Amino acid sequence: MGGVAGVGEKAQGPDPGGHPVRCPGRGGEEGLLVPARAVIDASVLLASLLPDEPTHAEARELLELALLPPGKAELLSTTLLPYELVNGLWQAVRQGRLTPEDVDEVLPKYELFEIPLHPIRPKTVIA
């Protein structure tokens, strides 16, 4: 299948002190400063899984820094994430960017992320 990028293993977890951690860069460069916790939405997740997205490389790198050993960040999201992800994949099928078989391959990769989902509390959002 040419339409879906691969995903690696689960990270070891965030910095226990909750402080941002600098991940090593490529070729000895100073890497990105990754927060101990970050909220992820479907657009970043979809961009990391769909190679034809303009921000595919950046989204992949961000998720790899957070999720692959020696990953340091904990990713969080709302309970809407699975619905938004499936809708985005369905749109990609409708647009001819993916086949239904591609989607069957992508969904298990999403499950590897094990992103904790939290309900949205309207009063908190409005406040």
Q: What's the arrangement of secondary structure elements?
A:
Layout: E1 21-22, E2 33-34, E3 37-39, H1 42-49, H2 56-67, E4 74-78, H3 81-94, H4 100-113, E5 117-118, H5 122-126
Helix pairs in contact: 1-2, 1-3
Low-pLDDT segments: 1-16
Give me the CATH architecture of the domain at 38-66 and 73-126, please.
3-Layer(aba) Sandwich
Percent helix:
40-55%
The secondary-structure element order is EEEHHEHHEH
Cα Rg:
15 Å
User: What is the number of helical segments per DSSP (H or I, 4+ residues)?
Assistant: 5
Overall form? globular
CATH topology of the domain at 38-66 and 73-126: Rossmann fold
Beta-strand content estimate: 5-15%
Global structural class? alpha/beta
Mean pLDDT: 75
Distance between the termini: 45 Å
- CATH-level-4 superfamily name of the domain at 38-66 and 73-126: 5'-nuclease
Going across the biggest sheet, name each strand in turn. Answer: 3-4-5
CATH level 1 class label of the domain at 38-66 and 73-126: Alpha Beta
**Count of distinct strands:** 5
Q: Let me know the largest β-sheet.
A: 3 strands, parallel
